[in-house]
Amino acid sequence: MKKIVLLAIAVALVAMAGWLPVKPRDVADLLPVEVLVLSERDGLLYLDGGNDLAGQGRSWAEAVEDLTETAPGVAFFDTVAHIVLCGDTWTHLDQVLNDRALRPAARVYLGQGNVEADSAAPYLATHQGDKTLQDLQAAWLEERTVTLPPLTETDGRYRLINDG
Amino acid sequence: MELTAAAIEAAFGETGDFVVREVEAAGWRLRLYFIDGLVTGGTISEYVLRPLAQALTGATMGQLVERAERGAVYNAVCVRVTDGDDALSKLLNGFALVLFPGEKTALAFEAKTTVNRSTGAPQVENTVKGAKDAFNENMRINTGLIRRHMRSEKLRFTQLVVGTQTATNVSVAWVDGVTDPDLIEKTVQRLKSLDVDSLATTAAAEEYLTGSRKTAFPLLQYTERTDRFVTALLAGRVGILIDGLPLAYLAPVNLGRLMDSPEDLSRDFVSASALRVLRYAALLVTLLLPGLYVAMAAFHQEMLPTALLQSVIESKQNVPFPTIIEVLFLLLAFEILQEAGLQLPQSIGQTVSIIGGLVVGSAAVEAKLISPAALIAVSVAGICGFALPGRDFADAIRIWRLVLAVAASIAGLFGLTAAVLLLVARLAGLQSYGAAYLAPFSAASGGGAILRKRLVTRNQKPEDAGQEGKP
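Above: the input entities. Below: the structure tokens describing the complete assembly.
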């Protein structure tokens, strides 16, 4: 019994000192992001995460940080399944690839038209692109050229073309 | 103690149920003793008093003893007693004692009362097709039931008396030529070495017989089924019957044995194996689910599929308590409900379960005090716990389930894994009568640990006698 009490005290002390390898983050506080849409206006990057989550900055990292800070809870990027790069924002792809918060299985698209995270999410839930962050990372390292599947928005309707 | 009238009467003192009577036989005055309630008045009148008064003749007291013992007193059981302690023991076991003044021996005639609870169907270990006779509180009836299932002269009962105050009769059952002699010796010696006041409760029996190890896991298996008891004896285990307890113990025991259900042997091996797999799955779910839910919901949300995570988040909306508190509270509430159900009469117990489980649970979810996801996780774990066949084992799992949930709430999957490793190490360190607790799952004998073997290929000889898994 003494051993158990000592072990419990030791664990409690380690937990209180913050030395444990993990920190609790209650699921109720999370604001999961499924679709991220990156667009550019007047030299600023705008990041739309849907559900009123938005951020802006001069780089991908700044936009993500802004979105995180202005979110009414904890913006949760581990659930990001789709990343849409609108206009010329594909030039920031290297920054997206270096973001460790995103899952390698997240799919990447080239957005055309007025793509919004909230309206694109239901469409992308049933129509998925064929290029993932992992594919792009591999191509980047091997210096191969990859064509991103275009996601086109016309009058609120979406169309995705995979080239196989 | 001396075998004299004064010593015997002084030993029982003024107790109201101790009866002393003077009887005249062939002109000699004898003293008859018995304990009211343990014997039948009719049996004493017909098979002790009447022959003593009418059939016994003799010129000397020695002749009286001789003739009475040889059959003049026509009673099925007649035991010669030469020691005062033995005389007291016989009286306490339903014998009538006849003391022949001046002689150094007395005769004890069996006159036990036949008032016993009848043998009923098993209350806990139910089966659809299996035998319906269960043990009751009378050890002699229990040995008779065992004999009816196993009509073999090789079945042996070694009888002992344990408990300085209760003088409880204990029988060690074994099968000659099948049970490991070392295991029998170990069991008998352990019983003989017990210097305790009482062996009247199941907790006392289990703690004293197993050496009171600091563990919640049972180191003896109990059964109320006679067919299961006999099957275990034939597999080389020893059985322990204790007078006054409506069950029997089996040793050694291991995790595989505790996961066996009596129903396994009344089904075909395919169905029985499928059910065993289901039972092991239930074991994992009941042990791990609350801890896994806490770890996933409070630490590792990225491991949940997005749709499931969305559902969990939605279920948590407006709930004021963090997941950790929610799950620990629900686990405790579940235990309290179970305990309340046990303490109350069956009809009220069911009402408490319904009110507690359905009404309070539903109301708490509707009032947003707890989330439906946490309630489902804890309830599923609780229900899976009821699928485990042994209550003692299930109780130990309940305690570890709480420990695992606390570990998960401290450090997520890291804590849960550490606690599971601790549990496995603990189980691996346990031994029951020299047999390793996890022996069925060792590399050497892993086959057939979970699936039930076909009876035609199964070795009925000792498969887990005491030496198995011994380091």
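Note for the figure: The radius of gyration of chain B is 29 Å.
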